[in-house]
Specification:
globular; Rossmann fold; alpha/beta; 2 domains; Glutamate dehydrogenase; binds nicotinamide-adenine-dinucleotide; five-stranded mixed beta sheet; 16 helices; seven-stranded mixed beta sheet
Length: 470
């Protein structure tokens, strides 16, 4: 992280700017911005070689206006309190924007995961979970983690198993975490959900002829030249789905070097190459790029930062050539850089909208766990009445009403994957519409401010309806 950078401050700055477009009282906006609970702790790890290490962990619950709170767990050496607070805050605004009924949270463990064996990672994950259980910072009705940078389905399975072991009476224990493997009551499509959502969001943006004309671009994703930073879970699936829609992935940047081919890179082959060789270096037919951060500045139509925050800063913003920046990562553009980019006429699709596919499908997984219904059973062998009962069971168990589109898909009879993808598409399309409507209604110049106005309004209503206790 660059010196003086604070993600939480940046997020509050964005919200403060959005609040100027609304009439919410200052006290209410202050309450919405504040982090409600911060848990910072350390615990010991016994390494495989018998030595001991102290591990630092965090869980931040940003907003209790809705329960449970929800947000991923990050394993990274850069984890620090302000980062986790900023990421937790982004979760609150993201959930509100796409109308997923959770408050925002985030967790972090300050480790470089590459330094640890699988056994050590399992001990870290299980102990981290036990620490959260001790302080009531996890549970299906309290706080529901998910994967983020450096974690995936494997870690989520360890968390679910540890939580279940400590709460044998809980019938809903598996709903304590999402992003689990399918064998552990995960849901079809969660792994690729964030990347798929990124692709759907970019498709919505590129389908607006007027917006594309202003940028001097053709309508549609097909033929657009794309550079992706980070070929992890989000970056890989975003690139894969964009490629399937006809976009041309001309460059991919990783922390240890990038690769470039003007004609396009085959994303599957590139990922296989990386798995086999440990880097993107020497991918057949492509050019090695040693300084991968410089790839953000290369000529392209769409830049997709999908690694970490604070990648586009005051220092490099003026050299960004992409016309569209799709924020797949959380917070990749600093506040100072955002101002420069907006002034330069860049079209920025903000993180709290664009990467919301992950939490959307996590919500479906949580509903599935609470209702104890296997969505896989919702197929054409069941009659419509049975499927209607499934809708009722899900709504009763979760206490929330499903959207009409999701209800229709269930009643019609669909596979779990159909259901997830239809709900995800529905969310990304409708949220884009809502976001653009806010931008027009409030006469807001940029999409990020419009996104924060939209979510601020929804959280404010929720707080006002709740009232203040006591
Ligand atoms: N996983 C999710 O469902 C999800 C959901 C919403 C948002 N996000 C956000 O997306 C981003 C990526 O998360 P992820 O889950 O894909 O993580 P990941 O760990 O699966 O992948 C991150 C990738 O970025 C690469 N990377 C790290 N530093 C880099 C650098 N300086 N330059 C280029 N590449 C670099 C890593 O090597 C890795 O391949 C994060 O900001 C995360 O908060 C993730």
């Amino acid at each position: 992280m660059s010196k003086g950078y604070d993600l939480f401050d940046d997020v509050c700055g964005f919200v403060g700017k959005a609040a100027l477009y609304t009439k919410h009282p200052k006290g209410l906006v202050d309450q919405i911005m504040a982090c409600n609970s911060i848990y910072k702790f350390t615990f010991p790890l016994r390494r495989d070689n018998g030595t001991y290490e102290v591990i630092e962990g965090f869980r931040v619950q940003h907003s209790h206006h809705k329960s449970p709170v929800k947000g991923g767990i990050r394993y990274s050496i850069h984890v620090e309190e302000s980062e986790v607070k900023g990421l937790a805050a982004l979760m609150s605004y993201k959930c509100a924007l796409v109308e997923v009924p959770f408050g925002g949270a985030k967790g972090g463990v300050k480790i470089d995961r590459r330094r640890y064996s699988v056994n050590e990672l399992e001990r870290i994950t299980r102990r981290y979970t036990a620490e959260l259980i001790k302080k009531n910072f996890i549970g299906p009705a309290i706080d529901v983690p998910a994967p983020d940078y450096g974690t995936g389905a494997r870690e989520m399975a360890w968390i679910a198993d540890t939580y279940s072991a400590f709460t044998p009476e809980s019938i809903n224990a598996l709903g304590c975490v999402t992003g689990k493997p399918l064998s552990q009551s995960g849901i079809e499509g969660r792994t690729e959900a964030t990347g798929k959502g990124v692709c759907l969001g970019l498709r919505e943006a590129c389908d607006r002829l007027e917006d594309m004309k202003k940028l001097g671009l053709e309508r549609g994703l097909a033929g657009k030249k794309v550079i992706v930073q980070g070929l992890g879970n989000v970056g890989f699936y975003a690139a894969k789905f964009l490629q399937e829609e006809g976009a041309i992935i001309i460059g991919v940047a990783e922390y240890n070097g990038g690769t470039y081919n003007e004609e396009g890179l085959d994303i599957h082959a590139l990922q296989m190459h990386r798995i086999e060789n440990g880097s993107l270096k020497d991918f057949p037919g492509a050019k090695n790029i040693e300084n991968s951060i410089s790839m953000l500045e290369m000529e392209c139509d769409i830049l997709v930062p999908a690694a970490l925050e604070n990648q586009i800063t005051e220092e490099n913003a003026s050299r960004i050539k992409a016309k569209i920046i799709g924020e797949a990562a959380n917070g990749p553009i600093s506040r100072a850089a955002e101002k420069m980019l907006v002034e330069a006429g860049k079209f920025i699709i903000p993180d709290i909208y664009l990467n919301a596919g992950g939490v959307t499908v996590s919500y479906f997984e949580w509903l599935k766990n609470l209702s104890r219904v296997s969505f896989g059973k919702i197929d054409k062998r069941y009659d419509m009445l049975d499927n209607l009962r499934i809708v009722e069971a899900i709504e009763k168990a979760s206490g929330v009403e499903l959207s009409d589109d999701v209800k229709r898909t269930i009643v019609k009879g669909a596979s779990e994957e159909d259901l997830v993808m239809s709900g995800l598409e529905d969310t990304m399309v409708n949220s884009y519409e809502g976001l653009r409507r806010t931008q027009i209604d409030y006469d807001v110049p940029d999409m990020r401010t419009a996104a924060f106005v939209n979510s601020l309004n929804k959280i404010a209503i929720s707080y006002m309806d709740l009232g203040i206790f006591p």
